[in-house]
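Q: I'm building a small set of examples for a reading group on sequence design. Run inverse folding on the following structure and report the sequence directly after it, with nothing in between.
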C-alpha cells in the first residue's frame, strides 16, 4: 500500500547513505536520488543535507521520518487485520532481543512461531538491553525481549519467563569443588563481566548490594560483549563470571563449567517483552501470545 518514494526515503534516512539504500532496495543509486528529489519538490523542503562525506536529516527530513514510521506501522496493521478477516495471518514482524535471549531463548521460539504461522516473516536484531530499547523507541523494531526493566516511560513491559543468574567457573578452578562461598570472598577473585548497558550487568549490580557488595568491589580482569566469549574465557582462565542459567545448558551437561553457590546471593529476574506504550499491533500481539503459550506449556 505504501508510496515507494516514501519507502526509499525511509531506507535512506535509516542508513544515512544513498548507496546502502540502493543496495537494500535493489535499485540504482540514481533512482534513489530521483525519488528523494521528487519528494523534496512535493514538500518544497530539503530532506537531507550533506556534511563532509556523510548526509544528515534536515528538520523537515526528521519530521517526515516520524510520520513515515507511523504510516508503515499502520499499513502493517491494516494488512494483518484485513488478512485476519479471512483467517489468514501474514506480514512482517521486526523483533529485537538482548544478547542472552537472542542466543539461547529466541531461536526455538522463532522456529515454532514460523511453523505455526508460515506466512508471517520475522526479522530479528540483537544487542544489549540498552540497544534493543533504543531500537524500539526509534521504531526500528515492533517488539523486543530484554533482560530486565529500565525506567523509560515510553516503554511498556510484559513479564515473559523467569531467569536465574549464577556464579560460574571453569571445571579446573579450585572453587569448582566448593559447596558454598562467602560473599565477601568474591573480592579475592578476578571476574569477566559484560559491557556497560547490559541488562545482566545491571541486575548483578543490584543483587550484590543485598550482600553488602558493589560492582566496583569485584576485580575486573576483562570486559566482554557476549556470553559465548565469556564462557570460552572462563574455560581458559582462573576467572569467575555471573551468567544466565539459560546459557549454560550444554556446559553444565558436559562438565566444562561449574556453578558456585554464594551464601545469601540469589539473582533472579524476568525476561520482558517490550513495546511502545499503547495498544500492541496485531502481529506483535500474535507473537507475544504464542510465546507465552509456548512457555506456559513447558
Amino acid at each position: 500500500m505504501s508510496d515507494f518514494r516514501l519507502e526509499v526515503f525511509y531506507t535512506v534516512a535509516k542508513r544515512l547513505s544513498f548507496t546502502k539504500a540502493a543496495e537494500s532496495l535493489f535499485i540504482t543509486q540514481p533512482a534513489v536520488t530521483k525519488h528523494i528529489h521528487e519528494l523534496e519538490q512535493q514538500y518544497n523542503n530539503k530532506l537531507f543535507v550533506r556534511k563532509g562525506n556523510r548526509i544528515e536529516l534536515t528538520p523537515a527530513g526528521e519530521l517526515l521520518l516520524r510520520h513515515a514510521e507511523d504510516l508503515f506501522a499502520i499499513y502493517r496493521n491494516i494488512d494483518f487485520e484485513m488478512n485476519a478477516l479471512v483467517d489468514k495471518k501474514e506480514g512482517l514482524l521486526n523483533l529485537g532481543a538482548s544478547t542472552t535471549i537472542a542466543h539461547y531463548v529466541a531461536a526455538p521460539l522463532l522456529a515454532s512461531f514460523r511453523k505455526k504461522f508460515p506466512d508471517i516473516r520475522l526479522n530479528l536484531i540483537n544487542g544489549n538491553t540498552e540497544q534493543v530499547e533504543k531500537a524500539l523507541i526509534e521504531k526500528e523494531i515492533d517488539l523486543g525481549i530484554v533482560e530486565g526493566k529500565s525506567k523509560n516511560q515510553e516503554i511498556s513491559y510484559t513479564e515473559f519467563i523467569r531467569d536465574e543468574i549464577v556464579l560460574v567457573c571453569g571445571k579446573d578452578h579450585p572453587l569448582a569443588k566448593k559447596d558454598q562461598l562467602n560473599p565477601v570472598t568474591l573480592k579475592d577473585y578476578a571476574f569477566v563481566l559484560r559491557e556497560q548497558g547490559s541488562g545482566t550487568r545491571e541486575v548483578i549490580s543490584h543483587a550484590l548490594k543485598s550482600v553488602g557488595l558493589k560492582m566496583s568491589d569485584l576485580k575486573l580482569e576483562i570486559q566482554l560483549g557476549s556470553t559465548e566469549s565469556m564462557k570460552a574465557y572462563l574455560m581458559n582462565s582462573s576467572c569467575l563470571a555471573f551468567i544466565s542459567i539459560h546459557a549454560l545448558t550444554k556446559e553444565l551437561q558436559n562438565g566444562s563449567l561449574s556453578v558456585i553457590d554464594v551464601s545469601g546471593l540469589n539473582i533472579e529476574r524476568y525476561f520482558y517483552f517490550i513495546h511502545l506504550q499503547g495498544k500492541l499491533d496485531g502481529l506483535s500481539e500474535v507473537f507475544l501470545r504464542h510465546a507465552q503459550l509456548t512457555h506456559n506449556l513447558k
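The mean pLDDT is 88.
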